[in-house]
Amino acid sequence: MSSASLWRFKQSSVIPGFGITLGYTLLYLGLIVLLPLGALVTKATSIGLTGILSTAADPRVAAALWTSFGVSLIAAGVASVFGLLVAWVLTRYDFPGRKLVDAMVDLPFALPTAVAGIALAALYAPNGWIGSFLEPLGIRVAYTPLGIFVALVFIGLPFAVRTVQPLIAEIEGELEEASATLGASRWRTIWGILLPPLLPGILTGFALAFARAVGEYGSVIFIAGNLPYVSEIAPLLIVIKLSEYDYTGATVIATIMLAISFAALLLINLIQAWSRRRYGYV
Amino acid sequence: MTKEFGGAAALHDIDLTVRPGELLALLGPSGSGKTTLLRIIAGLVEADRGHVFFGGLDATSLPVQKRQVGFVFQHYALFRHMRVADNIAYGLQVRERANRPPKAEIRRRTAELLDLVQLSGYESRFPAQLSGGQRQRVALARALAVEPRVLLLDEPFGALDAKVRKDLRAWLRDIHERTGKTTVFVTHDQDEALELADRVAILNQGHLEQVGSPDDVQDHPATPFVMTFLGQAARFSADIRDGRVLVNGKPVPVAAQRSTIGRASLYCRPWHLTPTAIGQGHYTGTISGIRRLGSIRRIEVSQANGTTLEVEVPLRTSLRLGEEIGLEILDGVIFRDD
């Protein structure tokens, strides 16, 4: 075999089957991921670019997209901050019931989202356990965008925790000690020494929580109140369009969401690539 | 400089003075408390009782950030996400604005330290791109950058292979002579301690057994532990009578205090013993092994009761494996049995 071939598909490895696994990967991705997405885009573009633009310009659609992406962004950010805190406590400290708390972090993964939505709505409703305390303060959570935010933070938390946990476990305690002996304050140690190696994990967690939040439906619709122009999310609008037999309208909104999500994830990946370069081999 | 400690779980009433500018080794087996002692000096661990002084300054209540110590960890503890130069400059860059040197000064100091640790040209590498020895040199430069009152090294060569260890030892000695920095290093390797240090402090189970120069601790070990820990030593039961030391009823040319009488233990290094004809000397045994150690040979002599002694003999020897010989004790260190 000449080793000078341009495409080196032959990889020497102790595990055989490079060809068949690559073939399977491509076939799988094609059938499961690309085919439905392709069909979606094809259907949406059947009305032409002007049709897509006019749908996007529809005030109700635009408001729903703003709500979906805006609240998802904030919720993912908040989930990342608190997820980092939770991950830190669960990794760094040992306390009775640590394993139990650790297991509880995964509950938002496992719970049917509708159940979570109903539970949250019941808690935050004006006569609910938490809502009845907030009501006199003039804070309304249920049936407002704030309710959407609460639901999205809830479902985003496990992503934020699980992506940084292994990175925190990797940080040696000696690094903090080294920083302290060199005269660095605690804040300086946290910002300069502890956080930079965690940044890729935090970003990954943020991206996952954001992607999940954008696509979230079940838990949101129960607590959001779904007022058009106020607390209506884009996925709900798609369902409404479908129930009105407006398949093209539904796919157009879906395609716009797809495009924005793709752009957002691409951006996060670029930031991640940059941070990896900036911080060496972390 | 005085450091006094009350028992911090693993340490019992340690009173140790490190002289300015000296290179002191804390030597002991694992679990002897030597690392704990070092960490107390650094302020990373608090002593339950007792005080730490730097010069005349009582540093006991100073937090680690304010103690101005340079600490070098066994596993380097370099900041992986920072380049070599940023690692070294870190201690200067984290200072409050009022005390922080200007940027150009920091750059100059970093370059100077890189030169000192012979790593010029490596400033923009990441720690992952360096070998173990190079990483430890960066860690040392980083510790020196803050101009510490005292430099503390925790098993600095523990994670390195034999050749690199040897090079770094000579190099550390050289750096110490050039900077004159008071240095305390922890090691469990007696050769390292004896070769490198001005004075050696030997710890065992949280007690300070002896502090002294390498010659001191080797020639006049204060306790049987020091004697056995610093090298191969055989123990003989001995009697002291009229200022004479007797092993198996025969006198040994070792001085004992005239007034002491009673049971004692005589510890002998392999070169304190020499083979003689059977029936003469203090012991008889069978040669069960002959090994070459550089320019000498060491023979193992098994006694009837199963114990084995090591004896040093010249390279050219007529002794054969399995031969029965006598052993004469030429010298040794005597300790009273209490």
From TrEMBL, chain A:
PROSITE patterns: ABC_TM1. Coiled coil: none annotated. Residues 65-268 form the ABC transmembrane type-1 domain. SUPFAM superfamilies: MetI-like (SSF161098). Its main location: membrane. It is a multi-pass membrane protein. GO terms for molecular function: ABC-type sulfate transporter activity. Keywords: Membrane, Sulfate transport, Transmembrane, Transmembrane helix, Transport. It is found in: Cell membrane. CDD domains: TM_PBP2 (cd06261). The chain crosses the membrane at residues 20-42, 63-89, 109-129, 141-161, 190-210, 217-240, 252-271. One of its GO terms (cellular component) is plasma membrane. Signal peptide: none annotated. The keyword Transmembrane applies. Belongs to the binding-protein-dependent transport system permease family. CysTW subfamily. Part of the ABC transporter complex (TC 3.A.1.6.1) involved in sulfate/thiosulfate import. The complex is composed of two ATP-binding proteins (CysA), two transmembrane proteins (CysT and CysW) and a solute-binding protein (CysP). This is Sulfate transport system permease protein CysT. It comes from Microvirga vignae.
